[in-house]
Structure formats: structure tokens, C-alpha cells
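Journal club prep — side note

Before the paper discussion, L.F. wants everyone to see what a predicted structure for a comparable chain looks like in C-alpha cell form. Sequence:
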Amino acid sequence: MAKSNTLESGILKLLYQNIDLANIGDASGLQNSATAGSLYLALYTTAPTDADSGTEATYTGYARIGVVRSAVGWTVTNNVVSNAGIITYPVNTGTIQTITHVGIRTSITGGDLLHHGQLSAPFVVNNGTVPKFQIGDISVSEN
């Protein structure tokens, strides 16, 4: 069976915007978190897998970027969620790396991989480069 549009949108809103998913179990449904927190965007030099393998970026200065779990951080339209703001990484002060994939994780270090995907085009992070994603560049669809 396929998921309904309502369920697809509801799952994304619960995960990315911390909004209740009503009518699951009872009218109150699946509840949001008391503290919304953030999800973290990780950069990869090799493809992450569903089993959470892949090589995360290690250029000098790299750190995952937190995006708050709310409408300020994420936009949900139908069954697609995308970043609502510009995402800017720290400047590379050393090693050159080619970024090919991104992953959305539950923690600034370690944590669980929730979604992952290949970039439309790889980009090289040279010394002095500041990796950046514009509004809507990162998107996840739920089907």
C-alpha cells in the first residue's frame, strides 16, 4: 500500500517542524517533542547508505550545521520538506575535499542518519571556501 498525502506531509511535519501528527492512536496522535531541538546537515565525500555508512567530510574547520525543527528551519509543502533558510558551513582552512552527498542527522556528532541523498553536482571545498546551500537547496520527499 502507498501512504496518503496526509500521512506523508504529517510525518515530515512531525520530524522537521515538531508538529503533532493527529489521529494516530487517538485524537492527540503522535506528539511533538517538548523541546524541538535541531536536525544536523552533514556533508559527505562518499555516498551514505541506509545502513549509515559513507565518508563524512573532514576538511579543516568542518562541522555539521544545526537547523531548528520548526517552520523557521524547514518548509513542508505536500510531501516535500526543504530548508527555509541559507545554510552556511565554516570556512575550509586546510584540506581540499569534494562533497558529493548530504545527510540529515539527529546530533551534531554521531546520532542517527534520517535522510540522505546525492547532490545535483559535486562541489570542491578548496582552502578558503565557505560551503553554502541557498533556501530550498536541500529537499526530502516522503513517498
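L.F.'s comment for the group: The first helix runs from residue 5 to 17. Keep this in mind when we get to the figures.
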